[in-house]
Amino acid sequence: MSPANPAPSTSLRTRVERRVMEAGEALNRRRRARKTGVRARRPAVPAPVDAELVRASLGSVFRELGDAHRRYRQRTGNSGTAELRAAARAFKAEPALPALVTVAAFLDELGLLHW
Description:
The chain is mostly helical. The chain has helices at residues 9-35, 51-76, 82-93, 97-109. It is built from four helices and no strands.
């Protein structure tokens, strides 16, 4: 991606997908670390991608976006827009990747996404 050639909207979706996968991997590492010793006798099998993990990963990235936006508002004194609040409410009502991408798009326009 070059400055003269801005990324298409699918690029943001790809970036959000990647961040959600990274969050899922981090959650899995924490889960395994908690279970170490407790279930040491059971054979280690790869954890299937379950709905609970996906939902937790989406929520983790959503909270990260919220933290970034709060820091931005504190730094600039700007408030959130009605559109961003509506997008956040839509995500909370139905946590899914497309809704998360919509929220991320607002932050990307502000230059707050560094991934």
